[in-house]
């Protein structure tokens, strides 16, 4: 067997999920063999002059999984655990996510193994610009369009856009999404993922006959996805009883004052985390997942819900804000327990959907209002939710498998039409 350098626990999980969907769809064997692997995987060295004068060489990645439906699309992650296997898994999930949402885009992901909380703004900028320069021949509005992911934000996207534009000699806003509005970003992109998670929860609640006001939720991860999802849930009358981030979490059975917690993290907290939050009792990230609540949102790292803790979950709805938070073993347990799962490629698709709107607006130099953005986002997510629900009923499969089957099938059909370039 040839060495498959990009395989790792995360990519094993992504590939196995794909195989289950492919078997169920009786997918053409040749198409299936191709889709198990990325189109292309880049590993780059990112030398960066650190504040103390020495040059640190970070390792960066960009994995492009499939572009049969359109340009590659996917975020850039800055996190110490970033590696080729994880980025490959995330790239594959982007392919299914874009196809499920009906976007004319393929799947990619990038990242740099680093701890952004430990490097200065200047170092972060230099690292970002050098990483962009290293992958510059493989990105572009027609080829591959990066976006924010864990550890990156609109400032990082602005540096990517500027570096790319400097190399071209003119402004190219369409090379990345999730940019500041001032340089061609879109209204509503920052909130899109968290907002989308809540739109799918609203549809799940309707389907299950759950009246949301007064219900309880716990949210793991208080970044761009978790904090917005918590705020939007509070906005529809849900009591958010626990939130957490990498420093730990806080729990109050009566509900936390989410707007004030967000204010605390943004303005008062020393390190922009929940550390020292004055509301609620401390709770660990692991214990948060096992709290009794109606809605649980993992919105942090992958593989948090495993064969080890899935049996202890006490929620009714699990809405996956994170990518790949639930392992295959955990899926079996959740099915037995009757927990309704809104899978990642559906629940968190709001981010890439509004990224798609941003890219379209950049290509046309014509911008939409936030109302238009949110309405179109909600329409796409609601349609996708019911397509997945219908598929799960028709095929008698869980929501994750149904979502994967729709995404994989769309990509496979496109591949069969286009044929093999020989
Ligand atoms: N990083 C986000 C995701 O995992 C968004 C990707 C994008 O907007 O291209 O879906």
Question: What descriptors fit this protein?
Answer:
about 425 residues; Rossmann fold; five-stranded mixed beta sheet; binds glutamic acid
Question: How does the SSE layout of this entry go?
Answer:
Elements: H1 9-25, H2 29-35, E1 40-49, E2 55-66, E3 72-79, H3 84-100, E4 107-113, H4 121-134, E5 144-148, H5 154-168, H6 189-208, E6 216-220, H7 224-235, E7 239-245, E8 248-251, H8 258-268, E9 281-283, H9 285-289, E10 295-298, E11 317-319, H10 328-337, E12 340-342, H11 344-347, H12 350-364, H13 370-395, H14 399-418
Parallel strand pairs: 3-4, 3-5, 6-7, 6-10, 10-11, 11-12
Antiparallel strand pairs: 1-2, 2-4, 7-8, 8-9
Helix pairs in contact: 1-3, 1-14, 3-14, 4-5, 6-7, 6-12, 6-13, 12-13, 13-14
Notes on the structure:
With 422 residues, the chain is of the alpha/beta class. Among the domains are: 38-171, Rossmann fold; 191-342, 3-Layer(aba) Sandwich (Rossmann fold), CATH 3.40.50. It is built from 14 helices and 12 strands. The strands form 2 sheets. The protein has a 7-stranded mixed sheet with strand order 9-8-7-6-10-11-12. Strands 1-2-4-3-5 form a 5-stranded mixed sheet, sandwiched between helices. A hairpin with a 5-residue loop joins strand 1 (40-49) and strand 2. The longest helix is centred in the C-terminal third of the chain and has 26 residues, at 370-395. It is globular. The two termini are 24 Å apart. The mean pLDDT is 97. Glutamic acid is lined by residues 73-75, 147, 149, 177, 323, 348, 351-352, 355.
């Amino acid at each position: 067997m040839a060495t498959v350098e990009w395989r790792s626990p995360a990519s094993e999980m992504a590939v196995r999920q794909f195989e289950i969907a492919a078997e169920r769809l009786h997918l053409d064997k040749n198409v299936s063999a191709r889709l198990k692997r990325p189109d292309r995987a880049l590993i780059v060295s990112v030398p960066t002059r650190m504040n103390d004068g020495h040059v640190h060489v970070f390792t960066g990645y960009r994995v492009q999984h499939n572009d049969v439906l359109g340009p590659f699309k996917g975020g850039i992650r800055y996190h110490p655990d970033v590696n080729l296997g994880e980025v490959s898994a995330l790239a594959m999930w982007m392919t299914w996510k874009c196809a499920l949402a009906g976007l004319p885009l393929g799947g990619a992901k990038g990242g740099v193994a680093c701890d952004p909380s430990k490097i200065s703004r200047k170092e972060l900028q230099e690292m970002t610009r050098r990483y962009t320069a290293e992958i510059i021949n493989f990105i572009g509005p027609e080829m591959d369009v990066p976006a924010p992911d864990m550890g990156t934000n609109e400032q990082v996207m602005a540096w990517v856009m500027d570096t790319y534009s400097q190399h071209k000699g003119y402004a190219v806003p369409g090379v990345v999404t999730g940019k500041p509005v001032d340089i061609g970003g879109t209204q509503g992109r920052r909130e899109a993922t968290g907002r989308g998670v809540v739109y799918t929860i609203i549809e799940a609640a309707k389907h299950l006959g759950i009246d949301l006001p007064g219900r309880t939720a716990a949210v793991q991860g208080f970044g761009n996805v978790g904090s917005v999802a918590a705020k939007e849930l509070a906005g529809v009358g849900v009591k958010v009883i626990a939130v957490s981030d990498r420093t730990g979490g806080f729990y109050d059975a009566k509900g936390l004052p989410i707007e004030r917690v967000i204010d605390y993290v943004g303005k008062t907290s020393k390190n922009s985390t929940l550390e020292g939050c004055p509301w609620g009792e401390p709770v660990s990230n692991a214990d948060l997942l096992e709290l009794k609540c109606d809605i649980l949102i993992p919105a942090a790292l992958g593989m948090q819900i495993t064969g080890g803790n899935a049996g202890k979950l006490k929620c009714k709805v699990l809405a996956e804000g994170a990518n790949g938070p639930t392992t295959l073993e955990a899926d079996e347990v959740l099915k037995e327990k009757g927990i309704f799962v809104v899978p990642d490629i559906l629940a968190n698709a709001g981010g890439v959907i509004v990224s798609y709107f941003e890219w379209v607006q950049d290509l046309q130099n014509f911008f939409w209002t936030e109302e238009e953005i949110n309405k179109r986002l909600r329409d796409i997510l609601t349609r996708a939710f019911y397509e997945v629900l219908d598929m799960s009923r028709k095929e008698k499969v869980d929501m994750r498998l149904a979502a994967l089957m729709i995404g994989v099938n769309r990509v496979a059909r496109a591949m069969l039409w286009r044929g093999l370039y020989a």
